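Priority: low. Protein: Lysosomal membrane ascorbate-dependent ferrireductase CYB561A3. Input follows.
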Amino acid sequence: SLAHRCHHRSPAMLDVPFLPFCAFLGALGLLCVAMVGTWCQHWRGGFSLDGSSRTFNWHPVLMVAGLVVLYGAAALVYRIPNTWSGPKLPWKVLHGSLALGAFILTVLGLAAVFCFHNSQGTPNMYSLHSWMGLATVLLFSCQWAAGFGAFLLPWAPTWLRALYKPIHVFFGSTILMLSVASCVSGINEKLFFSLKNGTMQYKLLPAEAVFANTLGLLILIFGVLVVAALARPSWKRPDSDSPDSRQ
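Result:
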């Protein structure tokens, strides 16, 4: 019957090919990094290493580039169909390297904000944004170290890898959403601090507020799409207990 045929066809009609989806996601990630850079350059005075607010400007750029975009790319490596056959080791190394790159950018981003606060005499770690951000970075560092120990070092027993794998996958998505929440709250906090005396107030929605709010929404969309890709059953690497998958 027609209804029966439609029922069978509808999942295929909604099916999005993985590689075009990834290309879109990559473009969205680059747009987020370009927009946060533009915001800091155009409205916040640019970049410097002198301990001023221009040193702080490295913080949002490095955090979005590392903790969201590069981390999202690392999370999606095992969804690439080419990873489903052949040796896993090169893909493990790529996954771990992208995550390590994200971690290095994140640490530099933290250094920028601490340097700015200390040079200005501003207290550290008092806002919800800072608590959530630091918790995310600590969780991320634990995740990377545990993943390295369990999956890249050759002496981890198979039962330990099997036990830890679902935990690693769960925290991968969790850390990404915490990163997105930290970025969005940070954008909001920066706008509240910056758009007051001597500038057009945030509540009057100047161009900077529209631009930065839009950036926050795009970061949120990026995070949701990565988590959706990770959760999609048809894009998951087929599980195998072959010797190859245990190398």
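Confidence is low (pLDDT under 50) at residues 2-13, 241-247. The domain at 18-233 is CATH 1.20.120.1770 (Four Helix Bundle (Hemerythrin (Met), subunit A)).
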